[in-house]
Amino acid sequence: MIMRRKSWTLSNHGSKNEKVITVENETIMSNYDRQVDIGRNIFMGYDQDKIIRKFQLCSDQKWIFLDYLNTSYRISRKDGKIEAYQKDDTWLECRSYDTVMTIYDLLCFAKNETAPALSGEWQTIGNFAVGSSPGTGTFTKKYAKQFQNSAEKLKTACEKLGGIIQKPMARADVTCLIPVTSYFSILLQFWDGDEEFEPELVLLWDKNSNQFLHFETMFYLQGDLLDRIKNKLEE
């Protein structure tokens, strides 16, 4: 989906050195909110029974149930609204753009009657790019700096999201398999920094990930995942 960017203009008022930043009345957050509703309407055009069978999901007449990043969600079969389970045993509508759009894509993108199969082979997100696409180095770098000197806490944070600590790969300080849903996972690797090297964070994707979701959605998912890890780290 195409998002409208927030528009900024600089205009002079009073003295020549005084600059006032004005923002469009329609903010990017309202655009995200609108896209959530558009995504919900698109979801309603899919065969829900087919989705349930394909991914072996629990359901009843009103809801489709899905665990996403170790949180229980339910999708209304009447209007596509997504709700997240709360600690006080209630459900609250989820309006997070990254979460909602990733869930819809993981449910609707796969084309065949049966769910795609994971290959067990891992690669970086760049291997899925067609033509010129943005990299993720700058994006993951900011999280790597936040995780520096916190390898054990990072392990705990990943486990809180359902992550399973793996044997170290490529001498990483943290290697963790993180289930996104019951049928799709991401592999996280983290190398702590020292006097010579900056910390490094890498997310690896199954070779068949592009059979489960759009390339663009991978960016939504990685942002959602890393934000959740950061929040768990700070608890």
CATH fold name of the largest domain, please?
TATA-Binding Protein
Order of helices and strands: EEHHEEEEHEHHEEEEH
The shape, in one word, is globular
CATH class of the largest domain: Alpha Beta
Report the end-to-end length measured between terminal Cα atoms.
34 Å
Judged by helices, strands and strand pairing, the structural class is: alpha+beta
Word description of this protein:
- This protein is α+β, with helices and mostly antiparallel strands.
- The protein has two domains: 81 residues, no CATH class; 112 residues, TATA-Binding Protein (2-Layer Sandwich), CATH 3.30.310.
- The protein has six helices and eleven strands.
- Strands 7-11-10-9-8 form a five-stranded antiparallel sheet. Strands 3-4-5-6 form a four-stranded antiparallel sheet, with no helix packed on it. A two-stranded antiparallel ribbon has the order 1-2.
- The chain is globular and about 55 Å long.
Can you lay out the helices and strands and say which pair or pack?
Blueprint: E1 8-12, E2 19-23, H1 28-43, H2 48-55, E3 63-68, E4 71-76, E5 82-85, E6 91-93, H3 97-108, E7 122-123, H4 137-147, H5 151-160, E8 164-165, E9 174-181, E10 184-191, E11 200-206, H6 215-233
Antiparallel strand pairs: 1-2, 3-4, 4-5, 5-6, 7-11, 8-9, 9-10, 10-11
